[in-house]
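Today's session is about reading a structure prediction critically. Students often jump straight to the picture, but the first step is always the sequence itself: look for stretches that repeat, for charged clusters, for runs of hydrophobic residues. Only then move on to the predicted structure, which in these notes is written as discrete structure tokens rather than atom positions. Here is the chain we will use throughout the hour.
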Amino acid sequence: MFEQICSAIRQAIIDGDLVEGTKLAPSRSFAADLGVSRSTIVTVYDQLCAEGYITSVPRSGMLVCAISETQFKPRQEIQNRSEDEVQTLPQPLLGGQPDMELFPHRQWAKAVAKVCRTNPQAMLLGGGRFGNFELRKAIASHVLDWRGIEASPHQIIITAGSTDALGICIRTLAKAGDSIGLENPGYPPVRNFAKAMQLVPVDLKIGDQGAEVPLPGQTPRLSILTPSNQSPLGGVMSPRRRQEFVAWAKRHKAWIIEDDYDSEFRYAGHPIPALAGFDHLDRTIYIGSFAKIFSNLLRIGYLIVPAELIGKFRVSLERFGFSASYMPQQALAEFIQTGAFYHHLRKVRRIYKERRKYLIGRLSADLAEFGWFTDHQAGMQIAFHLRTSFQDTVVSEKAEKLGVTAQPLSSFGTDDVSYNGLILGFCNYTEPEIDRAVATLRQVMLGQY
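Below is the predicted structure for this chain, in token form.
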């Protein structure tokens, strides 16, 4: 009752029905009119006074205060804005998006409930700067089995996602003005982030064997690579090129940052071993994330650093702070250790594999005359290369107006790198959604829109 009365008076003041200086009814008579206790009305008036909507004036009672016309937006306007925001949600075929409808709510709830019941303090006490130790142990076991990386839990740092992990690496190992090797084409936010940190990009062009090793005279302090599935083109870095990069890093005392963003999603054979395992964590720093596998809302990722860098990273975290939330870490450790995580991973891999197969079928049937693609049997998206008679930015813009998001491949590279295509995701979309999206792209390229 208190909430209802308080809300009604507050809204009347916001809407202008009660203007500045209006005197409210005395608490006793107002209570009698509404059929509630006087203490309820007194509490209402006290609350509105605290919020600044009314004020108590001696011998005058409760008066409405002045409120700026632009201080609040009408309730209907807020609702309309929310509906507009719904319209801007990602549409097919946006790449790299996991299907959150597949999130294992029951199993996750069990893991959270068990932690709350048996070890609730672990949800607030994270275990130091590097994060929850149980989760770090679970990750050490996971990367050994899935990525071929032998690492101690003491080498693992829990982060607030892969972007946070990248920021920690750059703050720890580089300074403004240092050069940094970046794949070209590559993930645009990484390039933007490096520039924001005042680093000088050195482009690493992508060839048949993966990113090219920096040329003589180019000595970037760091190089960021996606060797298990190049972003955005797809494909695996060859063993020879991996050896060349490791030899280059040792020769120049440089560091390789391996961004292993979706390596679990390989649909034929076993996942490709990580470069960090190939290098035995000598000159390679490994970035992993649970965003693509499990949930992009938990914002949990991790770093695995060479033993000689543990001290530097600890000092860096003490200086700049720790961003990852402690709350879900123990529950995630429980989720992994009980096997629920791997059950979920097998499930989504099976579903994504079917959706990928379906998209490939539709591309081959409906869009083959407009371009081509390479099936790398991995990842969460496909790079569809357009023939020269089409411009990817134009196709993308027209498709976007029709509710289909197909990122232009040219936006992933710099001006001097020529790529013309579309990045097409499949994980987050059903077969009917893929059908409609591909049909729309066909109509766009036929010039029907």
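Discussion point for the tutorial: Residues 343-445 form a domain with the Aspartate Aminotransferase, domain 1 fold (CATH 3.90.1150.10).
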